[in-house]
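Final report, closing paragraph on structural work. Over the funding period we assembled a curated collection of sequence-structure pairs, and we close with a single example.
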Amino acid sequence: MSEKKRKLVVFSGAGMSAESGISTFRDSGGLWEKHSIEEVATPQAFGQNPKKVLEFYNHRRRQLYEVEPNEAHYKIAELDTKFDTTVITQNVDNLHERAGSERVLHLHGELDKGRSSVDETVIVDLKGKDIKLGDKAPDGSQLRPHVVWFGEAVPAMSEAMEEVQKAEILIVVGTSLQVYPAAGLVDVCNPDCEIYYIDPQGEPWPNPKLTVIKEKASIGMKKLAQKFNL
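Its predicted structure, as stored:
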């Protein structure tokens, strides 16, 4: 009988994607591709100027296919061979999946999907295509990006909390843990969970089970993979 794999959860953020060349909001002086979040990342913005919002996300979607997963993504995918692994990510790109991770939970949606503008459960796969004004979701409403905007609920949060609560090992990588409610996930770990925090700044929170690796995502994950004999 094969030995049961330990439950491992990876919680990843924008620092992962940044190493692949995807720009992040926090790294660009409060602007995101030269736009403020109020212009392109709120329901109000979509209501006032849907064409501008759609063009912004179309550009980001095209950019997604100009970049590749980096070593951190591949090292995380390798964890599947040894652990019962779930990736929870704040990122809307598909780089974890392209690197080979099989179970990925996107907290803030997925850039390469669209959804109904009235029913968040009606979702379509865009396969790299643009969304234009007049493009309809299956329910007949205007198609919009399948991205959680500022001010909107995070539908996947309850499922993410359940995954973290079951974790025996938690790896936090590429996130400064400043964006809530996602940052609160680390607070629901069980007391015996081993936690690894990979961050160049290495500002840990109090936890006796916490190991801090002061490196960027790719180097930190390489070191952790070696620790796990991968």
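The CA atoms of residues 107 and 169 lie 19 Å apart. The chain has a mean pLDDT of 90. We thank the funder for supporting this effort.
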